[in-house]
Amino acid sequence: MKILVANLGSTSFKYRLFDMADERQLARGGVERIGAPESRTFVEIGGEKREATAAVPDHAVAVRECLAQLTAPGFGCLQDASDVSAIGFKAVHAGSAGGVRRVDETVLAAMEALSPTAPAHNPPYVNAMRLLAERLPEIPLVAAFETAFHETIPLRNRTYAVPWEWSEQYDIRRWGFHGASHRYVATRVAQLLGRGDARIISCHLGGSSSLCAIRAGQSVATSMGMSPQTGVPHNNRVGDFDPFALPVLMQKSGKSLETLLQELANQSGLLGLSGVSGDVRDLEAAAAAGHERARLALEVFVSAVRHYLGAYLVELGGADAIAFAGGIGENGANTRAAVCAGLAELGIVLDPAANAATRSEGPIHAQSSRVQIWVVPSNEELIVARQTRELLEAGR
To answer: What is the CATH number of domain 2-144?
Structure first.
């Protein structure tokens, strides 16, 4: 069984192709600048790369272009496009219609209804899924929602203290996201530790960030809530924020609620704090040059990560491992060091040399550390491929 896993943007389509017989990645590629006069199509198979430039008007054409490359004589890894059993999507939010589902009108309608909570994610996915369902009806579409991993969180950790009917009637609750990444970390760290009952704190730190408390492979708490705008500050999204500040802002700025929400979702986070960039690498360079707001943005980010780390140490009654994933988690040695600084009394001691040298999977804890600390690059696409295969095999 071969599964194509799609990662969609409003003008991009990126994919990985897996042979699920042994979970090998056969190819990776995609299309950028969809809808532009010249789009870039790229693919890598067995270390060989190819690129082409041509007009790609929509996501359906993008998929067909990629399938053409994957079946190209003398280069492709597929005999025919029909070798693809399904396209799996790392979808974000459909509320109670989430989980792992065949894409149908019920799923699409639920995603549309929740577009205000996931404005950067749901609209492009819905548009592309509708288009692909219409123009590629021979290929099953499967949505593996980011919220699915967090369905095991107990009610005490996912229920807001709001009028009860808000939860019951309107699904207002802490849904949590980055589920594919946290699920991969839970699985991989359990393998590395050689135990299935491990208490793990997964730190997915990147352009979008969240922490997750994991016990015996199951999510028991996570930093994101009803929307991906919550939790720790993100590159340009706000993180945790008091909603009662909004009427004050509306009165003093004269801006509408819609405008303020757009600013919280697009012009806030590390970018809003620093006025420089939402990229930690840029902020570190600016802070080193004396830019005070860049330094403050980094400090606010680290403090927020440590806030949730501390909460999850209490929730789990300690930890057997802390894992760093995501672009910052994998590559940000300075951030990892700042998050773990001064925690020796809690059994968390970083090895400075290992931390500075590690950019791929590996341990970065000192010998004296009671808690193991790992860098674990996530393979979210493999998780989606596994979930898609399981759904197909179950005949759902």
So the answer is: 3.30.420.40
Task: Establish whether domains 2-144 and 194-375 are of one fold.
Answer: yes
65-75: pLDDT as tens digits: 888 889 999 89
Burial 60-88 (b: 16+ CB within 10 A, else e): bbbbebbbebbbeeeebbbeebebbbbbb
Tally of helices (H runs) and strands (E runs) in the chain: 15, 14
Contact 158, 173 (CB under 8 A): yes
Fold classification of 194-375 (topology level): Nucleotidyltransferase; domain 5 (3.30.420)
DSSP 152: G
* DSSP type of residue 217: T
For strands 218-222 and 321-325, give the pairing.
unpaired
pLDDT at 396: 61
Given a contact cutoff of 8 angstroms between Cβ atoms, the answer to whether 208 and 228 are in contact is yes
Mean pLDDT of the chain: 95
| pLDDT tens string 245-265 | 999 999 999 999 999 999 999
Phi-psi bin for 48: left (phi > 0), alpha (psi -120 to 50), beta? beta
- What is the rounded distance in angstroms from the CA atom of residue 202 to the CA atom of residue 192? 14
> What does the domain layout of the chain look like in residue ranges?
2-144, 194-375
Beta-strand pair 321-325/372-375: parallel
Q: Report how far residue 319's alpha carbon sits from residue 182's, in angstroms, rounded to the nearest whole number.
A: 15
Is the pTM higher than 0.85?
yes
pLDDT at 132: 87
